[in-house]
Amino acid sequence: MTAPAPRPHSHPFVPYAPPRLDVAEGLRRGQELFEHLDGRRSVRFFSSDPVPREAIEMAVRTANTAPSGAHQQPWTFVAVQDPDLKHRIRLAAEAEERAFYEREDIPQWHGALSRLETDADKEFLDVVPWIVVAFAQKYRVDDTGRQKHYYVNESVGIACGMFITALHTMGLATLTHTPNPMGFLTKILERPSSERPYILFPIGYPAADCEVPELTRKPLDEALLWR
């Protein structure tokens, strides 16, 4: 059999030939990954025990493996360890959260959150050893001027999912905290107008007495359809 003719390219390409697993081994690995991630929970009760900087670096490296629109990788992760800065973030987040919980025009939203027993108190932002904020880059500016980014929400969302997976794999816990609005994070963390806050991640080990709501995952027959 003759080798196929090389494909013509106008940009550099390289071979991609990952090892092909047999079906049984592939399914075994898939089941192992599912069981590992099925143990992940969002946490609001954290230990103040230190987390090495290398763990944050590893999680961001993992996020950087995510696919993105046109491979523009439109994200920035800002890691915060300074206690004063974390406290400023807490105060600003609590101000927005108080305004949210006092609103009378969104009873369904409040009702959806009721089983989580959340409120405006965000003490965990002072407790955790790290706060990491993911920013979405709407555009970038280079030598040729302003360059629009495409599929920003989708790209940053996938990267954040892989970031969470890496944290869980290292035995760490987090929460996808999204106070609304989040513009205060742009100001506190001195980010440019080309970026907007996407998710605030408090990161640490679960507290010794940590509790989470008793919830169930969506069953497969509601999440998957066959045609």
UniProtKB/TrEMBL annotation:
UniProt superkingdom: Bacteria
Residue intervals of the Nitroreductase domain: 38-205
Keywords carried by this UniProt record: Flavoprotein, FMN, Oxidoreductase
Name of protein: Nitroreductase family protein
Source species: Saccharopolyspora oryzae
